[in-house]
Amino acid sequence: MTLHVQSEAFLREIASLPASHTIEPQELRKLVAGTAISDTFELASTEDRWVCGPHGDLLLRIYRPLKEGDLPVIVYFHGGGFVLCDVEKYDPLCRMLAAVTGCAVVSVDYRLAPEHKFPIAVEEAHFALKWVAEHCISLGFNPASMFVAGDSAGGNLAAVAVQLARNEGSPGISGQILICPMSDFGGDYESMRLFASGYFLDRDVLDYFTRHYLQEEADGNNPLASPMQGWFAGLPPALIISAEYDPLRDEAETYGRRLVEAGVTVTQKRYLGMIHGFYSMSDLFDDAHSVYKEIYAFVQAIHAQK
Q1: Is 152 a catalytic residue?
Q2: What is this structure's pTM?
């Protein structure tokens, strides 16, 4: 499919902006601060919970939908290349996710690079997942319906956290939701060449994120950085969302195929004509709404099997 007209309009709108990879992280964070979704959704409550993590206090923002009873819960890791964004930036997305799916959402404000390089974000993601699992009952969540999700860099952290949980035998994860995930720092993928520039997420920007996140190039082969280098047997069912005009498209879809080869149940959905990040801009992209419906269907299908 050709580039969607909404993708074309967005790319025209941002064409005059300075190249992200030429701006220092601290300044770039100021430029991207703000909300990404204009929709508003009514929720039962939101709560900021500070917990003592492996690298100091860690903020978890908890969203509760209007639905009552023991809630399924989604632990969410935001995108931003390990360098940008936070729970505030992702507040609209997580509100929408909770409202549409009827799940509680716990958004994790992990520490960012380059101030906190690999593997600090991984260690905080792993800790947050375990913390939520251990506190499900007291929080009013259903420990048998716990999902892990993330987009882009957050999809990377979600995939790694699920692998670590499987390695430890706990907690039990019902499913993983990976939205345009970064899954392989060292891979060679056609989409990375086809969409190297001009499609919002550029190869130069990805290199910028890599340079700031990893301590050294060899870290890219570590399964804690590249979940593609891990092992996949025994992982929970996965929903993998990809965008046609995203340089990360092929590694996201390859990750899905690797899971299938290992016997994992996978639902893959490629959004034609879309670019990276479309799912976080429902005011600009109609297809963004479909992503949350896909997540709802995925959660409901797994819940029905229990």
Answers
A1: yes
A2: 0.97
